[in-house]
Amino acid sequence: MDFQEGLPGRLDSVKTETSRPVRLFCQDECRFGLMPVKRHRITLPGVKPIQEAKPGYEYFYLYGAVEPETGQRFFTEHDRLNSDCFQVFLDRFAEAFPRSHNVLILDNGAFHKAKKLSVPRNVRLIFLPAYSPELNPVERLWQDLKDQVAFDLYKSLAALRQEVRSAVATYTGEAVASLTGYDYLVNAADALSS
């Protein structure tokens, strides 16, 4: 069965297991580093664009979850992409939304399925089919966020972190919902509340 078509049924089964309201979030991680983000540029025919670059091998990860229906979002910063950091993210996410049972749709990263993970009681993980980033709307948010820091050279990781934090803070719920409100997710979330 197609993931999009089967999602409402999977959410219904979650709904029957809890007396709390069920909320639907999508989760992913994004790496930001001192190597500048490059994008296409428009130039005259035959003119190659010039992009300053410097080798920079320091980076950090932004772990994020968004509610496509409302644009509600939750982010944490980490130095690594592993199950320990994902556990911290899960625990903080569960604490941020304690009154609801929160479904997280996420990819099949090995650290998302580590045996040592302890998924909080108010969180349920639903995994996307393998190799299907097009089904995860958080990818669009990362693309938009990287567009905001593209082409810039940052002298330090601290400066880049501050720029990313500032960019994240500018997003409104409406803007996030506009980027991430895929029809199949919004329809599934609407069915939860009916």
At the fold tier of CATH, the topology name is Nucleotidyltransferase, domain 5
Number of strands: 5
Gyration radius, to the nearest Å?
18 Å
Number of helical runs? Answer: 6
The main sheet orders its strands as 3-2-1-4-5
- Low-pLDDT windows of residues: none
Number of domains: 1
Q: Note the gap between the termini.
A: 24 Å
Mean pLDDT: 91
> Which CATH class?
Alpha Beta
CATH architecture: 2-Layer Sandwich
> CATH homologous superfamily - what is it?
Ribonuclease H-like superfamily/Ribonuclease H
How large is the share of residues in beta strands? 15-25%
H and E string? HEEEHEEHHHH
Class by SSE composition: alpha/beta
Most strands sheet? 5 strands, mixed
Share of helix among residues? Answer: 25-40%
